[in-house]
Amino acid sequence: MNNSKHYRFHTLACLILVGQTWLHTPAWADDEWMSDWAIREGFKIEVAADGFELPTAVAVVPNPGSAPSDPVVFVTELMGAIKTINNDGSVSVFADDFFVLEHEAQLPDFAGEVGMAGIALAPEYGYVFASFAYQDQNGTLRNNIVRFETTPGTFNAQPTNSIRFDNVFAQHPSSVSHQIGPMVIQNDTMFVGVGDAETIEMAQNPDSTNGKILRMTLDGQPLDDNPLYLEDAANSARNYVWAMGVRNPFSLSMAYDRLFAADNGPIVDRFMEVNEGYNYGWDGSDWSMSIDAEFVFLPSVGPVQMDFIGSQHSAFPASYRQRFYVAFGGLPSQPPGPGERQDRSIVMIDFDFEKNFVPQTPSQFLRYQGSLRQMPVGVAFSDEAMYMAALFPYSEGRGGAVFKISYDPQNQHPVVLGRNQSAPELIEKFGCASCHGVDAEGSRAGSLEFSQLVPRVMAHIQSADFQQAIAEDTGEENADNALGQLRQLTPDINGARDYIRLKLLYPRVDNPSSQMPDFGFSEDTAAQLARHLTIEPEGDTLVMQIRGLVNLFIPAVVRQRHVIIGFGVGGVLGAGGVIFLILVWLGWRRFRTRNA
After folding, report:
1. N or C: which end of the chain has fewer CB within 10 A?
2. Rounded-to-integer distance, Cα 131 and Cα 99, Å
3. Of all helices (H) and strands (E), which one includes residue 468?
4. SS (H, E, C) 296-322
């Protein structure tokens, strides 16, 4: 084939490929985001609407109107707009520009973690409440609530009136992140969670609204049966206090006339029932975050909006009812990609309302596993589905989204949570790194880093202790088979891989006193983890293994001394080499001169 024909052939092939790509684009481009989310089996995820700018919370209209433009879901945006998703799928601006806030920085910068955070509806009155942090005329950051009025029952696309609750909050400061958050309405009463404004003592001061759960009327007035109410202190903060000593209660939900919250701590978070007059003890320490907690999340996962689905709720099957669903956002400043601490997910929390405790470990319902920066932040149920707000753009150029999640086994989401989990997800799920670590230094049970782990295992296989252990019957279940395999191991990468696999299956097979937990791994899972931990990293594997052996057998102080000596010897040899080359060059010139 000559060059001209060769060029024409490849041009034609490229055009065909481009044409095929263009023709097939609609079939997959709109669904690219699907692989970013994993969810329980039988559930479907749809995009209810997108194009939002940092959506922070959602509220569902219980009985929406029938007109195409009637709102179904209210959505708050961090920067100050309230929008509605309507019956026809369109998005409308319900309210905008009702508070002043000049951001010093934008998310994901921590300084941008401030603005509108909560929304609640009172359908009987047509009230829409929004909570937000704003700057007053002096530029001081403060909390507030606005109540918009519209058509009772079905609401409207536009409010007819609004009032602000300045009298409640105007005398108290706010702070980035540690601001006002969620609201819950029960009959004619509203509960509000307020952060501590990054001033710890305010959480313990009954005359501050900060670090509190407040209780008030739908007009923003205190109730005289609040636990700290004083008759002659009309607008005092203490008259609004229902409970105190919280740090950042960004999750609030009512279940069977009982109030529950999830409180964000510095290192640990807590889930708790909020009881009248209780002090939940926040004093700046992580230990205080466990006071009166029903469950403690360690490390912190950043719980935000929360909703409860009761036994009669028809949106999900019976096995998914009687549970709290909490959005775990993590930190905006964390790197893009899935969370490393079970965060960036929606988690189910069971609660025994008779015995008043969490009967089992909370479990994930949905998890973000994509490569973009993302945070699930909003959760609310309708009679048919769950609505979830995702803070950051869910796809390139598409903006933030509100997803609709329904139970539909016939059209379930293609990525099922817990099925075909990757090795890093399994390591995270079972807490392997809490003992072993993933870096070269700092682990108390040996690092999982390749250059540390593989040489250590290979050395162990050759040790006298190991040979003695496998010569004895340890009594481990299935030990005969496992011991037989251990006796055939070779001190190389394959032997290391097989040893790790067997230790995952039978943790005490060669050491009856081993503290390694038995997770009940299947043969396939153990093999998958063993392969992952012994994958040759990029670069020179031999060099890394030699370095690992040096690190393993030579003390650090000796290594450091040898490095210094090495540099010294290298310097001397290098200088000697230069001198030698100079002498050779001078000798060559002299030889040429003599023979010229």
Report:
1. C
2. 11
3. helix 464-470
4. EECCCCCEEEEEEECCCCCCCCHHHCC
Stretch 100-115: mean pLDDT = 90
User: Is the CB of residue 340 less than 8 Å from the CB of residue 351?
Assistant: no
Beta bridge mates, 345? 328, 367
- Which pTM was predicted? 0.77
491 preceded by cis ω (within 30°)?
A: no
Indicate the range of 406-415, 419-428, 460-469 predicted with least confidence.
419-428
Q: What is the mean pLDDT of residues 47-54?
A: 96
Residues in the chain: 596
Residue with tokens 């799928």: 89
Rounded CA-CA distance 381/136 in Å is: 35
The HSE-up count of residue 452 (CA atoms within 13 Å, CB side) is 14
What pLDDT digit, counting tens, does each position of 206-259 carry?
999 999 999 999 999 999 999 999 988 877 999 999 999 999 999 999 999 999
Nearest to 180 by CA among 156, 208, 155: 208
Using CB atoms within 10 Å of the CB of residue 341, give its burial: 0 to 12 exposed, 13 to 18 middle, 19+ buried.
middle
Question: Is residue 21 predicted with pLDDT exceeding 50?
Answer: no
Bridge partners (DSSP) listed for residue 402: 49, 389
Distance CA 427, CA 432 (A): 5
